[in-house]
Inverse folding.
């Protein structure tokens, strides 16, 4: 496994590759990330993983400075997982000048997580497009835990005619159901015990919808109130179309329940795809 830090090194190394699968990350890797690497290995002879904490996708009061950075441990895990190349650029390498040209995501980027994090998906789409242009993969793998991100990046690849297949990897969970996330490290012991409740609440949302309750707004409100009473600060609970991420039409059967809520200083997200 090679660890590269400059764009020149990366381009020189990848020039001889004919098929590349790419896994972009912000580091502090867990088993969910390593599962994405495993999926990537199934689709190409060369697997590239990037580790870059992207300042463009963090808001003014978000956790850019404190975001967990564990590069040595990450590289050890990636070597074991079978990655071929790890790209770890500095901010200055990725943004040698202020980034004035940005990718404008679709309107859905202003809903759900985007409503709480203005400009977030603009920053995500911009850095991912830059990374795509550097790595030039045929396949890129993203986790379904960040379902809205996956949806937007798929739309970007399709609408900008990128020759890249976007693959979604299933959410990897702890034994108690908590979706694996780098930000789980922020949870104190009491919060960690409480954290799986978000997943359980979404399971109840799915059960209610599948049992024939058609007033989705009522289900969402009841679930938000339930979590709030237990000390959560709820950003949203939503039932959406899995194909559009918009509120579902009456005929739609492929749905997704999504939630984002805070425990103390930690913002957790999760989702469950389901069918009626």
């Amino acid at each position: 496994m090679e660890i590269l830090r400059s764009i020149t090194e990366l381009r020189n190394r990848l020039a001889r590759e004919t098929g590349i699968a790419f896994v972009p990350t912000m580091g502090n890797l867990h088993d969910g990330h390593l599962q994405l690497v495993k999926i990537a290995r199934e689709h190409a002879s060369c697997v590239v993983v990037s580790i870059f904490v992207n300042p463009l996708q963090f808001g003014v009061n978000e956790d850019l400075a404190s975001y967990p950075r564990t590069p040595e441990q990450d590289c050890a895990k990636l070597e074991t997982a079978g990655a071929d190349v790890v790209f770890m650029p500095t901010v200055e390498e990725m943004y040698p000048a202020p980034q004035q040209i940005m990718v404008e995501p679709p309107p859905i980027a202003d809903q759900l997580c985007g409503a709480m994090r203005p400009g977030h998906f603009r920053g995500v789409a911009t850095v991912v497009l830059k990374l795509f242009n550097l790595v030039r993969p045929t396949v890129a793998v993203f986790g379904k835990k960040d379902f809205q991100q996956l949806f937007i990046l798929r739309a970007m690849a399709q609408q900008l005619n990128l020759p890249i297949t976007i693959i979604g990897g299933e959410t990897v969970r702890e034994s108690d159901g908590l979706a694996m996330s780098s930000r789980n490290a922020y949870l104190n012991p009491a919060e960690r015990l409480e954290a799986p409740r978000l997943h359980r609440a979404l399971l109840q949302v799915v059960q209610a919808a599948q049992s024939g309750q058609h007033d989705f707004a009522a289900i969402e409100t009841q679930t938000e109130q339930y979590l709030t009473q237990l000390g959560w600060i709820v950003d949203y609970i939503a039932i959406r179309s899995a194909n559009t991420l918009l509120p579902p039409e009456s005929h739609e059967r492929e749905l997704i329940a999504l939630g984002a809520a805070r425990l103390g200083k930690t913002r957790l997200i999760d989702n469950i795809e389901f069918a009626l």
In short: The beta strands are 2-4, 20-25, 46-51, 85-87, 139-143, 165-169, 233-241, 254-263, 266-275. The domain at 2-169 is CATH 3.40.50.620 (Rossmann fold). The chain has ten helices and nine strands. Residues 256 and 273 are 4 Å apart (CA to CA).
